[in-house]
Amino acid sequence: MQQETHLYDLTVIGGGPTGMFAAFYARMRNLDVQIIESLPELGGQVAALYPEKIINDVAGTGAVTGAALIANLQSQLDQFSDGLYLACGEAVTGLKRLDDGTFMLTTTKRQTHTRSIVVAIGGGAFAPRPLAVDYDKALEGQQIRYFVKDLQDFAGKTVAIAGGGDSAVDWALALEPVAAEVHLIHRRQQFRGLESSVAQLQASSVVLETPYNITRVAAHDSGLRIDLQVAKGEDQRQLAVDTLLVNYGFVSDNSLLKAWGLPLERRALIVDANMETEIPGIYGIGDAVTYPGKVKLIAAGFGEAPSAINHLATELYPERKQPLHSTSISA
C-alpha cells in the first residue's frame, strides 16, 4: 500500500454537495485540501440517485436539478484546483490519531497524513428500500425502477410511483408533464412532503391512489400489472402501467463512524457549535451529524461548512485573520 509523505491541512471525507462546498470554502481560506470520495465521481447521492430531481431549498439557485447543482459546485471547485487533491473511487477504512495531534488515514489505496478532518459522508452507504412483495427481479431497471437518471425515459408512458414522502411527491410532479399518465400509490391519505409540494400535487393531474398497499407486481404485456388493496380493508383493484418507480426511501449505513471510534448519538456524529467532535481536529457536517435543532437539508449543510472551516483554519493558523466577507480569498 502506498504511504504518502505529504501532510494536508484538511481532508474532507465525502464528496457530496456538502463536502464539495466545504473543500471549496477551505481553499478560499488557502488551506491545502484533499477530498476522499468512495464513489467514482463527486456528487454523492445527489449525483448518483437524483440527477433529474428538482431541488428548491438551496438559496439563490431557484429550482435546480441535482445534476445542475453538482455542476455548479464543481465549477466552484475548479476555481481553486491548485492545492486541492481529489481522490474518487477510494474509501477510508481506518483512522488513527497520532501523538502530535495529526491523523493517519488508511484508504483502500493508500495511507495519507492530515492535520484535520471534516466528515461529510451523509447517511453513509445507502441502498433503496425494496418493494415489500415478491416480484421477478429481472424486471428491475426496466419496468421496475428505484432511480431516475433521465426523465425522458418515461416520456409518453403510464407511470406508477410508490411512496408518500418528499421524493415520491417531487417525482410525481416532475413526471406529470413528461409521462402520459402518472399514478401515485400511498398507503395513507396524507402525504409527508413539503406543504407547498403537496398542494401542487393535489392541484395536478396526478392520479392519487390512496390509501392503497401494493400486494402484487407482475409482468403484463410489455409493462406491469399492479394489484392494490385498500389499507385496513378488503377492497382490491388492479392498475396497468408501463413502469413502476419505487420510492420508499433508503437504508443508510454509517457504521464506519463507530468503527473509527468517533462519538455518536443514534448513529450520527455528535458536534458542537463549531461542528467539531470531542476529538480535536475532527469535524462533521451535513446529514452525518447531530446537534440540538439539527435540520437535514443540503442548505443546512452548506451553512455548517463555513462554521467548521473557519474554526479549524484558526486552530491550524492562529496568526491568520478570519475574512470578514465571503468574497475574500486572502488569508
Commentary on this structure:
The longest helix is centred in the C-terminal third of the chain and has 19 residues, at 298-316. With 331 residues, this protein is an alpha/beta fold. The protein has seven helices and 24 strands. A five-stranded parallel sheet has the order 6-3-2-10-23, with helices on one face. A five-stranded parallel sheet has the order 12-19-13-14-15, covered by helices on one side. It has a four-stranded mixed sheet with strand order 1-9-8-7, with no helix packed on it. The chain folds into two domains: 2-126 and 251-316, FAD/NAD(P)-binding domain (3-Layer(bba) Sandwich), CATH 3.50.50.60; 130-248, FAD/NAD(P)-binding domain.
Total strands: the figure is 24
Label the overall shape: elongated
* CATH overall fold name of the largest domain: FAD/NAD(P)-binding domain
At the first level of CATH, what is the class of the largest domain? Alpha Beta
* Major β-sheet annotation: 5 strands, parallel
Terminal Cα span = 35 Å
% residues in beta strands: 25-35%
Report the CATH architecture of the largest domain. 3-Layer(bba) Sandwich
Overall pLDDT metric: 90
Rg calculated over all Cα atoms: 22 Å
CATH homologous superfamily placement of the largest domain: FAD/NAD(P)-binding domain
Going across the major beta sheet, what is the strand order?
A: 6-3-2-10-23
Q: Tally the structural domains.
A: 2
Runs in which pLDDT lies below 50 for 5 or more consecutive residues are none
Return the structural class: alpha/beta
The helix tally amounts to: 7
Helix content range: 10-25%
